[in-house]
Specification:
720 residues, mainly alpha, two-stranded antiparallel sheet, 36 helices, 5 strands, elongated
Length: 720
């Protein structure tokens, strides 16, 4: 601080050599005494102060003040400016004398008092300062330790000495327990953030009481925890939020409410609409209502946490949370039961139906919800109920309870759902039947006893997704990709280029046989996804190009054709800036089908060509969705020709051979591909699988057909 610049270690060493031995001894004794004083007085180590990175020489400061008469004389005589000047603090340093005074007061004044007067009690020192008056100077401004004694917290360790890295959610639990509106809202928002997937996601196993406190804020408590119910009564009186009245108006059956909330709630259960009008029970879900918003927040938090496998067991073992989810799944408000069904479907793989709470306290409310959902007309409830049943069947130990609960009515209804032309319901139903069949002989007997169950499953072995039609594929996306041919950035041939070489060799059978070309290896999932992204980019650029052309046509500007590159105006082609060039063709290329190699492929292509000639007509101004054409083709080949259909690429190639003028392009909506120049001759209706064969085999239908043929022959004879 004297020269206001840092000294190197060499300069400090040289300074110590120039000092006389007696002075060095005094300095060492001073610092030893000061350290012992700090240790005895405050049990703290001495840490020397620094100003602008330069260590303050406390010995010189103490020696200078004592030479001028000590703290009292220097303070009363206002000699701090003289001491600051001795230390190199000129007038250009603002408040330099005040800084010297504060350092001495904090670090050395109490030490001076002990060295000159002796140890004085803190209470006596405060009384002496008070008796001297307001303007009198005390020996020490404060009796607290001038050195911060904050010790770094030692990490928690387990019995093996390992550092515990588990997060601490104690503050969140305290905020929820307080019941204060601001604290509860803040904790709720933090829990909402921690519920999302990520490295900081909340781990329920580290805070087992956190979810119990969350659902307790909605009036749902553990049956054996009377303390929490009393605390909930206090929250109800302070916030004036009657959650019991809200649960009563949510449409939950009265027997479930009596099981979960107690028999007292039955007295508040209202069925008559007139009584609801006079009592004022809320019959609608309103996000502006703080109670509805609080329940919605908690259901969302539990739903998000249920997607993490590490949280599922802890959530299932927390009975108040399961009670809360069962109540939300049984209510009539869609925001609540949608989130509850999602959470229960995720937790179903860890639910033990033999658990005491689920058996005695809820009387198998999970199975009741699944039964109501299977027979519900709501698609979401049906699909989630099937998913819950699938998860329960996969849990080891639930076999006996589920087999006892299942009956022919449920199995028959599940097989009825299989026949619905909806691919999502078909997938979930088949998965559910598969898990039921995995439970043993009893479950398999229930499935086989269902009428026409085996025949229906066998008929679905040849079922194809395209046979469901556009309506049956609602909610699903059929991805079609075209491989890219070329080389990678490293100069290696792209994996899809092997596919192109193989196709070219198949188009020339003679060359392929001589070269001995082998079929390329199947494309990996990463390659397929990459090609799919490339195709989506092509479709996106094609759609943007069409929009740009239509905008230019309306504005009267010249339109650039796809064959000629469009160069951005205002940019010199010879400059270093590269202009954006559109070289993508407007039509999607489709290769004609090469000559077949074996007889099987030849017959299938001939059958495909026959079907196209019978059902398709070339009209340049017409366009038909390629998916619709292919769906009709697959349906006819299965039901009328009793043959397997070809691939979509083969179907498009045969059509291109018959009608070279046909172009496959992306529709204006950018979702599907249409065949420009093709019209379907008749409105095609997809028939159910194997329906015609079963109908014609019926004896009554045979008699009706024979009678029609006889009437037709007699009518022709009369006309002749």
């Amino acid at each position: 601080m004297e020269s206001r610049k840092r000294k190197s270690e060499l300069e400090k060493y040289i300074t110590t050599l120039t000092d006389p031995p007696e002075k060095q001894r005094k300095i060492a004794e001073f610092y030893n005494s000061l350290r012992m004083f700090y240790r005895r007085r405050w049990n703290a180590p001495l840490k020397l102060p620094h100003v602008q990175g330069v260590e303050v020489n406390l010995y010189r400061l103490y020696d200078t003040v004592m030479a001028l008469g000590g703290w009292q004389k220097v303070a009363s005589g206002e000699k701090w400016s003289d001491i600051a000047e001795m230390f190199g603090c000129k007038d250009d340093i603002l408040c330099g004398d005040h800084a010297i005074k504060l350092i001495y007061m904090r670090y050395l004044s109490k030490f001076e008092q002990v060295q000159t007067i002796g140890d004085v009690d803190d209470y006596v020192d405060n009384e002496m300062s008070r008796n001297r008056g307001r303007n009198a100077t005390s020996f020490f401004a404060t009796n607290d330790c001038p050195i911060s004694r904050h010790q770094p917290e030692q990490p928690l360790r387990d019995e093996r000495g390992q550092i515990i890295i588990e997060p601490d959610y104690t503050r969140l639990a305290k905020s929820l327990l307080s019941g204060l509106p601001n604290e509860v809202d803040f904790a709720m928002n933090v829990c909402m953030l921690l519920s999302h997937a990520g490295p900081k996601q909340l781990r329920v196993c580290h805070a087992p009481t956190l979810l119990t406190l969350l659902v307790a804020l909605t009036g749902v408590y553990d049956n054996d925890d009377k303390t929490m119910s009393e605390l909930g009564t206090h929250w109800k009186n302070s916030t004036r939020h009657n959650f019991v009245r809200l649960w009563v108006s949510s449409g939950i059956p009265s027997d479930l409410l009596a099981l979960f909330l107690g028999d007292d709630v039955v007295s508040e259960y209202v069925n008559d609409e007139d009584d609801q009008f006079f009592i004022g029970v809320s019959d609608t879900y309103d996000v502006q209502d703080p109670r509805c918003w609080r329940i919605n927040q908690i259901t969302t938090i539990i739903r998000n946490l249920s997607f993490e496998p590490a949280n599922r067991v802890s959530i299932v073992n927390t009975w108040p949370v399961m009670k809360f989810l069962l109540m939300c799944a049984s209510c009539k408000w869609s925001p609540l039961y949608v989130a509850a069904f999602d959470a229960l479907s995720n937790l179903s793989t860890d639910i033990d139906l033999a658990n005491r709470s689920l058996v005695h306290l809820s009387q198998h409310a999970v199975l009741r919800i699944i039964h109501d959902g299977v027979f519900n007309k709501d698609k979401l409830k049906l699909v989630r109920s099937l998913e819950m049943l699938t998860g329960l069947c996969s849990f080891e130990g639930n076999e006996s309870i589920i087999c006892e609960w299942l009956n022919q009515e449920i199995i028959t209804h599940i097989f009825e759902v299989v026949g619905v032309k909806d691919i999502m319901m078909c997938v979930y139903t088949l998965e559910c039947l598969y898990q039921i069949s995995e439970m043993g002989d009893t479950a398999c007997d229930l499935i086989s006893d269902s009428p026409n169950a085996i025949q229906q499953l066998v008929s679905m072995a040849t079922l194809e997704a395209v046979s469901f039609g556009p309506a049956g594929l609602a909610g699903m996306k059929v991805v079609e990709y075209q491989p890219q041919f070329g080389f990678t950035a490293g100069g290696q041939p792209h994996p899809s280029s092997q596919q192109a070489q193989y196709m070219q060799q198949r188009m020339q059978p003679g060359q392929g046989e001589q070269s001995g070309a082998q079929p390329p290896p199947p494309m990996t999932v990463r390659q397929a996804l990459k090609n799919n992204l490339v195709l989506q980019q092509v479709h996106r650029e094609h759609r943007d190009q069409q929009q740009q052309q239509s905008a230019q046509q309306h504005s009267g500007a010249p339109v650039s054709t796809p064959s000629s590159p469009a160069v951005t105006q205002g940019v010199n082609p010879n400059s270093n800036y590269s202009a954006k060039v559109e070289r993508r063709p407007s039509n999607i290329p489709v290769r004609p089908v090469p000559p077949p190699i074996n007889a099987g492929e030849s017959q299938l292509e001939q059958l495909t060509e026959k079907w196209i000639k019978q059902n398709c007509v070339f009209e340049p101004n017409m366009s038909t969705a390629r998916g619709e054409l292919y769906a009709a083709y697959v349906d006819d080949l299965r039901n009328f020709y009793h043959s397997m259909s070809g691939s979509l690429a083969m179907f498009s190639g045969v059509m291109k051979n018959l009608y070279p003028e046909v172009n496959f392009r992306m529709a204006q909506n950018g979702i599907m591909i249409v065949a420009q120049g093709i019209r379907l001759v008749r409105p095609h209706r997809l028939a159910p699988a194997a329906s015609q064969t079963a109908t014609e085999a019926h004896p009554l239908m045979k008699k009706m057909l024979s009678d029609k043929e006889g009437v037709k022959d007699s009518a022709e004879a009369r006309s002749v």
